[in-house]
Write a structure and sequence with these properties.
The complex is a heterodimer. Chain A is of the alpha+beta class. Chain A is built from 9 helices and 11 strands. By secondary structure, chain B is an alpha+beta fold. Helix content of chain B is 21%, strand content 24%. In chain B, a hairpin with a 4-residue loop joins β1 and β2.
């Protein structure tokens, strides 16, 4: 689960993941400072294929790629040849499949998060979903997700193997972008793309913070230098601004409460839960006839375990989508909303009590293909 | 109810024969060229039982050998020498010598403690699982993913139950009996019959953490005259220790009438060959689960509603989700200081999207105030519709969290959570 903050326990976890094959887990690393100073080296297994990466800073814990826990060696993922991106394969399990007999979008989001975590771990950074360097920790800086955009062209089904490639790049002074490409391993066709924007926030003040170039360079060393975008096309949906939903909303689901399973290690609601909440207000007729093609979420505020949330949705007319629908329809006849091939909705999640916005989103839906 | 999609598996499930032929030690990692089995030259040949991969280190590896060649340590029966070699005495000497070298090298090599310790898991790189042990046990490995761990940094009980559910379905699928996503066999499907779980007991010895790899074994037995029992055994692949044991009881129901059904003869014919005759892996807990209501419960949580993501293909709530709801009303002190060591569930009724549920918890015997310091705590639970119909009854047992939990280490640090 995406953890919005980092603490010493995460780092202890990161180091404990890198362990000698025969030995027990390293002992408890009680203080953050001690953990940061420790340089852990692990023997690399002969089967390791990933390139060894040089130590970049003295305080940074290094993990030889390919070494470490049993899961690491069996891991179906590894850094690519140039070390600048990470690929991993996942098999879709039966309980990750939803009403459509295909993986749910929450499953996809979980896998994106998992591969992001594994990438970070693979290059030796802490395990909060994205790298935090020693300097960042000294300055009390953490990464927080600002925006998430996922497009799925074909949902995988139970037992399908999905290969996900991920990489990260800097964006502006305070931002970083993590991109993903999802492929069906059997056919090697792209079944989805995703991009996310992260900003640096001071953990104490909870305010966004700019950082100096050398701090940024510390983590950007593992990112491709030339711009590599999952969404290279112009005017792509991942950049489009999302308006705030006006009252009254067409559809709503009120009184959503975080469950225990929704909370991450730091008792914050994890990012994938928001996706579920956004979709909660969708009515049965949409869920029955359409499948989610795109979801874009702007994260504004975090949610705690005792918050109560309202989920609101309204149909958002989109000129391009309607043009496509009309092209598909017969000439001259009005295309009624019920038979449109594509629908678009605007969403808002806000606290029940004071109405403070938690996040806003947009979803695009396409008519379900006729399955067996 | 377990009801999920069936689709053509991406990887065709390997037939037992192909498993036997292609399996050589180290097939996945260090390919050993000269060791590849050759057919007619007196080279090494691997034989194995149907549906059981050849085991390494001694057992059940059949080899064609020459009468006077090196004896294999497992004492497999030697086969008569191939006739064409007998006709070429000079060749036979040469080939015998070569074979001796090969066999000696193989023996050496089989004794190498090479990692990973379990070559069979390399045959299953995508975690599809396979049938082992004379065709009756299904085995699948799972690597614990980051989103499967709970607030206390270990895999949640829902994750464990999800793995059990996945292996159950894959077992049926690999045995060739899966017709639809409900786990129904062909004869069942013809009669609109489905399996419904009535009881589940899970004992957890230790919860795995992120990055651990667990091996789940599952098998089925008969249960009474008209039921089936499915057992699971979960162990840590690296250390070999048992992590979890679970046992479940299933009955047959007509999916349209929702009435329980006897097992028809034709279905018996399909499934009985897969029954193992073994005692339950978890001793059956026959204690009655008493009824609870607002008066007898210590904690009540109302207004629980299923989300879209909780629903299975049939738009019923997946039964693993019930555990999450049951724990919603468990007292917070217990959840923070203790971990679930055992849970017994009695499934009564299913619920769907529009249900509104209530979760009730009663402590058995312990005083509410001093829960954190209690050694063992037992609770009784009831999940029901707000209108009163019972969905699940449960009993949970809790023990204090292990002392070397990294979470407690993290709390000592200066950083705030």
């Amino acid at each position: 689960m995406l953890k919005l903050s980092w603490n010493a326990a995460d780092h202890a976890q990161a180091l404990s993941q890198c362990r000698f094959l025969e030995g027990p887990r390293p002992g408890l690393l009680a203080s953050g400072r001690r953990a940061a100073a420790a340089t852990v080296s692990c023997c690399s297994s002969p089967a390791s294929k990933a390139p060894a990466l040089a130590v970049v800073s003295d305080g940074l814990a290094r993990v030889e790629p390919g070494s470490g826990s049993l899961a690491d060696r069996l891991r179906l993922g590894s850094l690519t040849e140039d070390g600048l991106s990470y690929k991993e394969r996942f098999i879709v399990r039966c309980y990750e499949v939803g009403m459509n007999k295909t993986a749910t979008v929450e499953t996809i989001a979980n896998l994106l998060q998992e591969v992001g975590c594994n990438h970070a771990q693979g290059v030796g950074f802490s395990t909060d979903g994205f790298a935090t360097t020693t300097t960042m920790r000294k300055m009390n800086l953490i990464w927080v997700t600002a925006r998430m955009h996922i497009e799925i062209y074909k949902y995988p089904a139970w037992s399908d193997v999905v290969e996900i490639e991920t990489w990260c790049q800097g964006e502006g002074r305070i931002g970083t972008r993590r991109d993903w490409i999802l492929k069906d391993y059997a056919t090697d066709r792209v079944i989805g793309r995703a991009t996310s924007k992260w900003v640096m926030m001071n953990q104490e003040t909870r305010r966004l913070q700019k950082v100096s170039d050398d701090v940024r360079d510390e983590y950007l060393i593992f990112c491709p230098r030339e711009s590599r975008l999952a969404f290279p096309e112009e005017n792509n949906g991942s950049l489009k601004k999302i308006a705030k939903l006006e009252d009254p909303a067409q559809y709503s689901r009120l009184g959503l409460v975080p469950r225990r399973a929704d909370l991450d290690m730091n008792q914050h609601v994890n990012n994938v839960t928001y996706i579920g909440w956004v979709l909660e207000s969708m009515p049965q007729e949409i869920i029955d006839s359409y499948e989610l093609q795109t979801i874009t979420l702007d994260y504004r505020r975090e949610c705690q375990h005792d918050d109560v949330v309202d989920s609101l949705s309204s149909h958002e007319p989109d000129e391009t989508l309607e043009a496509i629908s009309q092209l598909n329809g017969t000439n001259g006849s009005a295309v009624s909303p019920a038979t449109e091939d594509y629908r678009q909705f605007l969403h808002l999640l806000r606290l029940s009590g004071d109405g403070l916005e938690i996040n806003r989103g947009r979803t695009q839906w396409r008519k379900k293909p006729m399955r067996r | 109810m377990v009801a999920t999609a069936t689709t053509s598996a991406f990887f065709a499930v390997p037939s037992p024969d192909s498993i036997a032929k292609t399996t050589r030690p180290g097939n996945g990692v260090a390919s050993v060229g000269p060791m590849k089995s050759k057919s007619a030259s007196g080279g090494l040949q691997v034989k194995a039982n149907a549906q059981a991969p050849p085991k390494i280190n001694g057992s059940s590896v059949g080899l064609t050998t020459f009468p006077d060649s090196v004896k294999i340590e497992d004492g497999t029966p030697s086969h008569p020498p191939r006739t064409f070699i007998n006709q070429l005495p000079d060749w036979s000497m040469l080939l015998a010598a070569i074979t001796t070298i090969f066999l000696a090298a193989e023996k050496q090599w089989m004794m190498l403690d090479w990692k990973p310790r379990r070559p069979d898991m390399l045959m299953d790189p995508f975690g599809l699982g396979r049938i082992v042990q004379d065709g009756l046990v299904f085995r699948q490995n799972f690597s614990i993913r980051s989103y499967e761990i709970g607030a206390d940094r270990t895999a949640s009980i829902e994750t464990l139950m999800n793995h059990l559910q996945e292996t159950a379905l894959n077992h049926v699928k690999t045995a060739g009996l899966l017709v639809d996503g409900f786990g129904s066999t062909p004869e069942m499907s013809k009669r609109n019959l489905i399996w419904v779980v009535t009881k589940m007991e899970i004992l957890v010895d230790r919860y795995p953490s992120w990055g651990d790899v667990v091996q789940v074994d599952t098998w089925v037995c008969g249960s009474g005259k008209n039921g089936m029992r499915r057992d699971w055994h979960v162990l840590d692949l690296k250390t070999g220790e048992t992590l979890t044991r679970a046992s479940s009881v299933w009955v047959m129901m007509n999916k349209h009438t929702r009435r329980l059904s006897k097992i028809p003869e034709e279905v018996r014919g399909e499934i009985e060959p897969y029954f193992m005759n073994s005692p339950p892996v978890v001793a059956e807990d026959n204690r009655k689960l008493p009824k609870l209501d607002e008066c007898t419960a210590d904690f009540v949580r109302s207004g629980l509603t299923p989300r879209w993501n909780d629903l299975d293909v049939n738009q019923h709530v997946n039964n693993v989700k019930y555990i999450g709801w049951i724990l919603e009303s468990a007292p917070l002190p217990i959840l923070e200081s203790h971990e679930l060591s055992a849970i017994t569930l009695e499934y009564r009724r299913e619920c769907g999207r529009d249900s509104v549920l209530q979760s009730l918890t009663a402590l058995s015997g312990n005083c509410v105030d001093d829960l954190e310091n209690s050694a063992e705590v037992e609770c009784r639970h009831l999940l029901r519709l707000e209108s009163g119909a019972e969905i699940v009854r449960a009993r949970t047992e809790w023990r204090p969290k292990p002392a070397n939990n990294p979470e407690t280490a993290g709390e000592v640090s200066a950083e705030s959570a």
